[in-house]
Amino acid sequence: MKLFRPERVFFEPSALKYPLGRQIFDRFKNTDVEVVETPIQNVLKKIPGDTEREKFARAKKSLVVSVNKKNKFDICKPSADYEFSLVSNCPGVCEYCYLQTTQAYKPYLRVFVNIEEIFENIEEHIRQNSQNSIANESNILTDTEGNINTNSLQTQRITTFEVASLGDPLSLEHISGSLARTIEFFGTLDNGRLRVVTKFDNVDTLLSIEHNCHTHFRVSLNSKYVINSFEHNTTSLEERINTASKLSNAGYPIGFIIAPIIIYEGWKSEYTELFSSLRKQIGSKIASSKPITFELIQHRFTATAKEFILQRYPNTKLDLNEENRQLKWGKFGRFKYVYPKDKANEIKAFITELIKSNFPSSIIEYFT
Ligand code: SF4
Fold it and tell me: What is the SS3 string spanning 112-146?
């Protein structure tokens, strides 16, 4: 897929104090890309567009080079213990994107350049987490004869971090290079593991770096109908499968996120086709000794997301009818609309069976 090139790049003044900020500045200055130095609060005003749709489309072509000031880590269940970000948002245009809820008012792309500080925070967090874990678990880790179970102790100390919950880091990797550095950083950590998910194929710079199998790559897959109808400006199904194959050959533990799983006319035959072509194309090519993992996420939307989706994609074919859904309390204190229990159970049972029959040695990590 063609690499993203922004229309304009905003630099927060503080970002230019970091080597990566300067490096990105040098890359774009004296090019036809508009370069603007401005504080983050002025960015939206400087993105052209009269309507919400226009503004959104131009924001998706606007990159902000920024500093990640967050030094606390949010919990990221069920995909990992915690999350952190190297980027936020992405040039992809998925109509259902979960960021319509959390970043609806700031749909521009960001890269964070204070990588060393982010690494320091992660190391400190892992250290504290390990200490707390040992203190909390010391009773459980003792067997009936009082012996310490060191295997369990070791398991308790591993802390996992999701790096793709605010956006797709692969989509901007050719500009920042920060995911490669992060993978190498996690490769040196005894007690930290990284989890990445992507819909992009920009992985060639990651194939020969020292990852030490500490990064678990998951590729986001879906039926042809969902990819073609809702996941604009992302890679095709074939490109994603090829990406997974490349990463696996480079020794990364590999998984797939099937999300969002959507019920529509013919959904069962299309998801059947997805798993069967995945098995044919990748089944024998997985090089990692670790089992393939699957994560299953049914479609959901919030009231905020619905409002923005209808403004940005007035002809969307997404089913956003609340009457077809049930409410579930979600992260960040918001209700979301998910499929009613019987439909959710049907999705779970159907996709689980497809995975078991096509990938008998794989692990299904969760359905949500
Ligand atoms: S690729 Fe991911 S982050 Fe980007 S628009 Fe699609 S769902 Fe959102």
Answer: ECCHHHHHHHHHHHHHHHHHHHHHHHCCCCECCCC
HSE at residue 206, side-chain half, CA atoms within 13 A, is: 34
Is residue 86 within 8 Å of 178, Cβ to Cβ? Answer: yes
Longest Cα–Cα distance in the chain: 72
Whether ligand 1 lies within 6 angstroms of the CB of 278 is answered as no
Does the Cβ of 192 fall within 6 Å of ligand 1?
Answer: no
CA 92 vs CA 79, 167, 356: distances in Å: 21, 9, 31
d(CA 299, CA 318): 10
Q: Which atom of ligand 1 is nearest to the CA of 91?
A: 4
Ligand 1: residue of 93, 97, 101, 196 to mutate (most ligand atoms within 8 A of CB) is 97
pTM: 0.92
pLDDT tens-digit profile of 224-276? 999 999 999 999 999 999 999 999 999 999 999 999 999 999 999 999 999 99
